[in-house]
Design brief:
Layout: H1 2-13, E1 20-22, H2 33-40, E2 47-49, H3 59-65, E3 72-77, H4 88-97, E4 101-105, H5 110-119, E5 126-129, H6 143-152
Parallel strand pairs: 1-2, 2-3, 3-4, 4-5
Length: 154
């Protein structure tokens, strides 16, 4: 935690647009509020709570508990399972109960992104996290794939 706290402090000193991505769970699978509070106590930067949430003991309870944090603005999640497109109902529930922007991630391809987008019932804003789909075989960003995603307007 000390290294993470120091990293956050150093990033805060930099110029430009900044965002912190973090997450912490207890051994029991609950959000580690003590660790989260310690890490974000002195920062004013927006924070994304990452996919640790997907391993929490009670996914929707954990999503709701994050509503209490003002500077946690986004939650990166697959809906509590391995792949986002396999957990559409959980993503719908998370979008509805959260006051954060839900970022759907894990297994996102053009097809799964369209499937998720067509299945989200809410008018609330949500995003997608694109990882390996937008990379070439050398794990470098493939500009053509990124352009394809942007053109798709999903």
């Amino acid at each position: 935690l000390e290294v993470m706290k120091k990293d956050i402090s150093e990033i805060e000193k930099l110029d430009g647009n900044k965002r912190i991505v973090l997450g912490a769970l207890t051994k029991e699978g609950e959000i580690d509020f003590e660790a989260v509070d310690y890490l974000i106590k002195d920062t004013k930067m927006p924070i994304t709570f990452h996919r640790a949430i997907d391993s929490s003991k009670n996914y929707l309870k954990s999503i709701k508990e994050l509503n209490n944090y003002k500077n946690i603005t986004h939650i990166l999640t697959s809906g509590g399972g391995a792949k986002a497109h396999e957990n559409i109902q959980s993503l719908n529930d998370a979008i509805e109960i959260s006051n954060k922007t839900i970022i759907c991630g894990s297994g996102i391809t053009m097809e799964t992104m369209k499937k998720i987008a067509s299945s989200i019932k809410s008018d609330k804003v949500y995003d997608f996290h694109i990882g390996s789909f937008a990379q070439n075989e050398n794990q470098v960003v493939d500009v053509d794939k990124v352009k394809e995603l942007v053109k798709s307007n999903v």
